TrEMBL record:
Domain of life per record: Bacteria
Pfam families referenced in this protein's UniProt entry, alphabetically: Glyco_transf_8 (PF01501)
UniProt xrefs under SUPFAM superfamilies: Nucleotide-diphospho-sugar transferases (SSF53448)
GO MF annotations, alphabetized: glycosyltransferase activity; metal ion binding
Entry keywords, A to Z: Glycosyltransferase, Metal-binding, Transferase
Name listed for the protein in its UniProt record: Lipopolysaccharide biosynthesis protein, LPS:glycosyltransferase
């Protein structure tokens, strides 16, 4: 019997249609979507949009269900204009799911997935608690938080999680404690807190698995010719495009090169079919 691939994401009502695009692209580019199980952390999704998300997955024969999170645990979490408290809920994933699940892939709700993520599930994590892609925002957050001077900072938009290792090391409790005790240090919200605890316990994946806007728009400058070759590949053939930062494809006048890709996959979902009007009507 094949092992199921467990995919998790999190959203509130505002980003539910973008998650629909993410799920549609995920399932469209997976060889065996029926081998997946999708769990959505409910950050305040309306019944109407929940139904559209279920229909998106059902079209590929993929089960989808919703997870409830302990909202009281995130009382000290700080939200901002682009990041709601729903972004923090990934911290509780291993506590909300069946202990028998060995690995879970968390994906942000603003990702365009163009490759088969089964390749990630087959990766050797070399004893690390998570696998992720380095963050290209050049924030130097670890040093600013007083954690370490080493440049070991990941982007939390995509996380391959070893569920047992996470639980055995009490990562959820440690991250929540850091959030509650250091609210003044969290410039980048949950991502800062996760890095503060896991900075030396993560496997670096190829950046094509989380092609961030800083790389796609050439805002990040490569430090060597070798790195530039890698990033050129990321821009030309990304496996996952992450619409992080302020440049969003659903905003009027977007210059993101993968804006058309966003609308192409959105149109295939019940969200796109329901909102088959102008692009401007899809803005949030």
């Amino acid at each position: 019997m094949k092992k199921k691939m467990h995919i998790v994401s999190s959203t509130d009502d505002n980003y539910a249609q973008h998650l629909g695009m993410t799920l549609g692209s995920l399932l469209e580019n997976t060889s065996n979507p029926e081998d997946m199980v999708i769990s959505i952390i409910d950050g305040g999704i309306s019944q109407q949009k929940k139904q559209l998300l279920k229909e998106t997955a059902a079209a590929y024969g993929t089960p989808l269900h919703f997870l409830d999170v302990d909202l009281d645990a995130y009382g000290g979490a700080i939200a901002s204009r682009h990041i709601s408290k729903a972004a923090y809920y990934r911290i509780s994933i291993p506590e909300m799911m069946d202990p028998a699940i060995e690995r879970t892939l968390y994906v942000d709700c603003d990702m365009l997935i163009l490759d088969d993520v089964k390749k990630l599930f087959d990766a050797d994590m070399n004893g690390n608690i998570i696998a992720a892609v380095g963050d290209y925002g050049e924030h130097h957050r670890l040093e600013k938080m007083g954690i370490t001077k080493k440049d070991r900072y990941f982007n939390s938009g995509l996380l391959l999680i070893d569920m047992k290792a996470w639980r055995d090391n009490d990562i959820t409790e440690k991250v929540l404690t850091f959030i509650n005790e250091n609210p003044d240090k969290l410039a980048w919200h949950d991502q800062d807190a996760l890095n503060a605890i896991l900075w030396n316990d993560w496997l670096m994946l190829h950046p094509k698995w989380n092609a961030q806007t800083h790389v796609i728009l050439k805002e990040y400058k490569a430090k060597s010719l070798k790195e530039e070759r890698v990033l050129r590949t990321v821009r030309e053939t990304p496996s996952i495009v992450h619409f992080c930062g302020e440049e969003k494809p659903w905003q009027e006048g977007s210059i993101h090169p993968y804006t058309d890709g966003y609308y192409e996959y959105l149109a295939k979902t019940p969200f796109g079919q329901q909102n088959a009007t102008s692009r401007n009507s899809l803005s949030v």
